[in-house]
Amino acid sequence: MIEESKHKIEDAKIHLYDAKDKNVDRHLTGVLHQVPHKVSLDWQDDESIKKEDMKNKKPKMSIFKKFFIFAILFFLGAAGFATYMFFNSDVSISKDKIDLIVLGNAFAKGGNELPLEVEIVNHNNANLELVNLIVEYPSGASDDVTEVTRLPRETIGTINKGESVTRSIKVRLYGEEKSIRNVKVSIEYHPEGSNAIFTKETVYPITISSAPLSLFIEAPDTATIDQKISFNIKAVLNTSLPDSNTVLQLSYPENFVFEDSSIKPDFGDSVWNLSSITTETPFDLTINGRMVGQDGDEQVFHVYAGVENPSDKSKVSVIYNSLLHTVNIVRPFLDATVLAVDTASGGEKVNVSIAWSNNLSTRVTDAVIIAKVSGNGFLDKSIESEEGFYDSLKNQIIWDRNTTSVLSGIEPGGKGVFKFTFKTKSFVGLSDMVRDPQVSVDVSIKGRQPSLGSSFEEVNNFSNKIIKVGSDFQIVAGANYLSGSLPPKAETETKYSITWTLSNTVNGINGAKAVTTLPVYVKWVSAYAGESVSYNDFTREVTWNIGSVNPNTGVGSNKEASFIVSINPSVSQIGSTPQLIKETNLTGQDSFTKSSVTDVSNAVTTNLINSTNNIGSGRVIE
Q1: Are 89 and 191 in contact (CB under 8 A)?
Q2: Domains of the chain with bracketed CATH
Q3: pTM of the predicted model as reported, rounded to 2 decimal places
Q4: Which residues, listed in sequence order, are joined to residue 189 by a DSSP beta bridge?
Q5: Tens digit of each residue's pLDDT (9 = 90 or more) over 459-511
């Protein structure tokens, strides 16, 4: 079978390659040409072939990419059209084509109503819609940008193209003379056919020709430490008062101590009402006080005039005018300082020292120091001085070149100390009421300083010391027999009532309290009904919470408290007078001197010396 197939193939080849063979049809279809092909010498796998095909094949564009490109082209076209319309359209709106003009007087009296005209001109080729006029200006004389008065917003409506609109406004400005206040005028508007809001504004400066109130202050530029200082403030009305609730407010520096004023303040020590001021009658005020602090300190006083703040009466809400004055604290040329206690008890002997010095760079001659003592707490004719001359008629001491030679010429930096004593009044047992007793020590020092040529210039200084006299606050403790054995008998109970009695002289006492302790052999029974007396079983202390005590207690009225104790003496106490309570300690605070006051009452024994029912001895018997 196989052999036969091979013969057939061979026969076919013979016929195929035989040019004269007639059995096979041959047709000439064309001329064959050599075509070159680039063939790689290395074999490639199917994946490499696919990648090569992908590179040569162009990807198709997605529909989303086509939409994005279309959107960008549309936006660019719209922006270009809008730009063209903005620069070339006749209906565009520009604020540069809007005139906002304020017409009126450029000068005004402070506090007076000033009329102004506001003109708005629309030069645009389109209408301005929903136009509102806004006006604001400073409320007072200060430069605080937060204190602004805004007039009610005025609705103008539509301003047609080419149209001019005028509105009248009135403003009331305050400030110092020649100060400039700016009135801000603005409009808000919508371009025709738009919801956007645009603003156009202008500022109109107005000079204050005169303030409604003129303020003047007369005060020294320098002051010495703890020296009395006075300054005068005058308010002059130039026009009618803009507001009936006009006040004058003073702001003091921290180192100023207010003492009094020629007109009583209406609030605290710094606010005065100006309702009485007229153009013919100015407001004239004098303030007295003292400067404290350190040498070289700069202290500033502020004065304001304006409308009272309804929420804080110590401040001015709208300021019509204001000024300030600076005082520098300096060392005095001649210094005399009073050194003494701040408070003293009634009937006490008080020691006073006067330390003096020459702070000038030149010699001072013929110095004189005078100390005068006065006050309702001073005991007349009680002054004692070794060096100075005591003038009993004037209650003063004088030191000069006749009493102390060192005062004939004091070299630069020279210093010294003079001393004297006086007594305070004792108010115990006095029925006359004395309020706030004190002693004032006023010292003056003066001398002559060489000036140009042979002339002399007088230099002087003053100082003052106030010594407050405290109240005499005392307590007395006593006992009375109630029941049981009298005299007390060993191992037998005896009851006693203990009574505390207070006395107080000139000043009220706050937070008063009396405390005593019971001996170990004494038993607490009870306090009388209504008494504020308590007992601590752990500490064995008896406490009377007194509270406030009025002046003149013990003379005009009494204040007492009582409680009951019992004693059961031991045989070891036979022949003695045992204590019922130990010492009583009294404490409180003087309402005038603000100092603590104390007193101690002796222990109370069974020896009833002051008792009304003292029967026999207080010694313990068998």
Answers
A1: no
A2: 95-209 (2.60.40.10), 213-330 (2.60.40.680), 334-469 (2.60.40.1530), 473-605 (2.60.40.290)
A3: 0.53
A4: 198
A5: 667 788 899 999 999 999 999 999 888 889 988 999 999 999 999 888 999 99
